[in-house]
Specification:
Blueprint: E1 3-5, E2 12-14, E3 16-19, H1 31-43, E4 48-50, H2 59-67, E5 76-81, H3 96-110, E6 115-120, H4 129-141, E7 145-151, H5 155-168, E8 175-177, H6 191-198, E9 201-204, H7 228-231, H8 241-260, H9 264-274, E10 278-283, H10 288-295, H11 304-313, H12 330-333, H13 342-347
Helix pairs in contact: 1-2, 1-10, 2-3, 5-6, 8-11
Pfam families: Aldo_ket_red (PF00248)
Biased composition (Low complexity): 326-335
Keywords: Oxidoreductase
């Protein structure tokens, strides 16, 4: 397993990170099997584990905490906060009030004294960036987190965060975690370029495009649904034009993988690591066999001939599907933020 610098933090992480979104009720409720996945990942040379407080309502963090007892110093441990775990006001977002409480709760569930990397899970347009960066800077100085980053931030908000940090004397985000795979290359247009400019480590998620790049879902439609296809059947409906387009592209990518002498999942997982901005790709196995199948391709290196073929099918900077709402310009969908109220228009 290759090791790479985590941006300019001084930490070094494996090129594969173990993502644990599928640990717990939302994926694999067997805590013992999840612990075996963690231990097997460590044995394969993965030293980077990524979780979040909202994964199975905190259950994933609890599983990771138990699995790391006696091995905590062997890993770079990352988690995230932003989403609500309970109902009520002031129980989500990126405010000082909420993130302070969220970090304390994550420390308890993870059974650790510190978090190596704490990430703001999504942008919060209701909270000033100075507020967010201020509390994260204080948490670093208190020793509760070692460094911090962002997840699924559009490029302009990444730039804003660095500019605010510079002007206010606050610490800067050191990592960004965007969706990036063979079917979703939109972040190549700006997010990855901005990250390189600021020396920000990029940790990509969804290398298998929610299961479409496993090779299990084909135009033949013979595979029984499992995993996310059961949880989100609408995403896999072949009558949907977007799904149909995905399946068409998958057929072409399967042929490229066969000619390259690898499986489609191996091709998909190796692809993000080719980009010079990417430090680590987050894999999210639900079972131990899924982990073993993924790490089997850890030594795969894609040559220019393969990458040129990929570019012909999915041109650089383009998306076959939109990977996440943060990049979908939600302000354009809702007229309220971009239209003055009638009284204001009349007055002007």
């Amino acid at each position: 397993m290759q090791l790479r610098p985590l941006g300019r933090t001084g930490m070094t992480v494996s090129s594969y990170a173990l993502g644990t979104m599928m640990f717990g009720a939302a994926g694999n409720p067997d805590h013992d099997e999840c612990a075996r996945i963690v231990h097997a990942a460590l044995d394969h040379g993965i030293n980077f584990i990524d979780t979040a407080d909202m994964y199975s309502g905190g259950e994933s963090e609890e599983i990771v905490g138990k699995a790391l007892r006696g091995r905590r110093d062997d890993v770079i441990l990352a988690t995230k906060g932003h989403f609500a775990l309970e109902e009520g006001p002031n129980r989500s977002g990126n405010s000082r009030r909420y993130l302070s409480r969220a970090v304390e709760a994550s420390l308890r569930r993870l059974d650790t004294d510190y978090i190596d990397l704490y990430q703001v899970h999504r942008p919060d347009r209701e909270t000033d960036l100075e507020e967010t960066l201020g509390v994260l800077t204080d948490l670093v100085r208190e020793g509760k987190i070692r460094t911090f980053g962002t997840s699924t931030f559009p490029a302009h908000e990444l730039v804003d965060a660095h500019r605010v940090a510079e002007s206010r004397g606050l610490m800067r985000p050191r990592t960004e975690q965007p969706p990036y795979n063979l079917l979703a290359r939109g972040v190549e247009r700006d997010v990855l370029t901005v990250a390189q400019r600021w020396g920000t480590a990029v940790l990509t998620w969804s290398p298998l495009a929610f299961g479409f790049l496993t090779g299990r879902y084909r135009k033949s439609g013979t595979a029984l649904p499992e995993g996310r296809a059961v949880l989100r059947p609408a995403w896999f409906d072949p009558a949907d034009p977007v799904t149909a387009r995905k399946l068409d592209v998958v057929e072409e990518l399967v042929r490229i993988a066969e000619e390259a002498g690898c499986s489609l999942p191996e091709l998909a997982t190796a692809f993000p690591l080719v980009h010079p901005a990417v430090t680590s790709v987050i894999i999210g196995p639900r079972t131990l066999p899924q982990l073993e199948a993924t790490v089997a391709g850890a030594g795969l290196r894609l040559d220019d001939a393969v990458l040129d073929r990929v570019d012909e099918i999915v041109p650089p900077g383009t998306n076959v599907y939109e990977p996440n709402g943060a990049f979908d310009a939600p302000l354009l969908a809702d007229p309220a933020p971009r239209r003055r109220q009638p009284a204001e228009r009349a007055a002007s």
